[in-house]
Design brief:
This protein is α/β, with parallel strands linked by helices and 171 residues long. Helix content is 40%, strand content 19%. 28% of the residues are buried.
């Protein structure tokens, strides 16, 4: 099979952020702790998708967003949303509707969000990946264990209509 033949049989991609973030996918945004601003980057991306604004000049598809703040406090995340013009953290129990941006905290917020991966065209940002790994008793330095977690979530995503999951990870 050549590239042309494969392109003809591959289904076209649907984008959450045109050319950057495909629907029904997982991405890992990784960088050094504190200095790489990966959480800020993902918060801005989440705000752009929830509001339908371009992200760094790239068009987005407006959809509900769940930002899983697995380390940050409500005050900290509220200040972050305000700094990017979001006006504070949204309720954890707000229904997922077009344009909603919901912040959920801790592992309980993660557990409540799993069903959305199967049932909703949603963008989920999980920040940081290491908290989910620890919750499941997995070692972040074991590539097989990390891959197992990613495959588990890939199955959830593939069951649904078009969820996308972005993991924030530090190295």
């Amino acid at each position: 099979w050549g590239a042309d033949e494969l392109a003809d049989i591959a289904p076209p991609l649907t984008w959450v952020v045109e050319g950057l973030v495909p629907e029904k996918s997982q991405l890992i945004v990784a960088g050094s702790p504190k200095t790489s601003k990966k959480s800020w980057l993902c918060a801005v991306l989440a705000d752009c998708v929830a509001s339908g604004k371009p992200f760094m000049g790239f068009p987005t598809v407006r959809r509900p967003v769940v930002y899983l703040a697995l380390e940050g406090s409500k005050d900290y995340m509220g200040r972050r949303w305000k700094a990017i013009g979001r006006g504070g953290a949204r309720s954890e129990v707000t229904p997922l509707t077009e344009g909603s941006l919901i912040t959920r905290f801790g592992i309980a917020g993660y557990e409540r969000t799993l069903d959305a991966l199967r049932t909703t065209e949603v963008l989920v940002v999980a920040d940081p990946l290491v908290r989910v790994l620890a919750h499941k008793g997995l070692n972040e330095n074991d590539s097989a264990e990390v891959a197992g977690l990613l495959y588990e979530h890939e199955e959830l995503i593939n069951m649904g209509p078009g969820a996308t999951l972005i993991w924030v990870h530090h190295f």
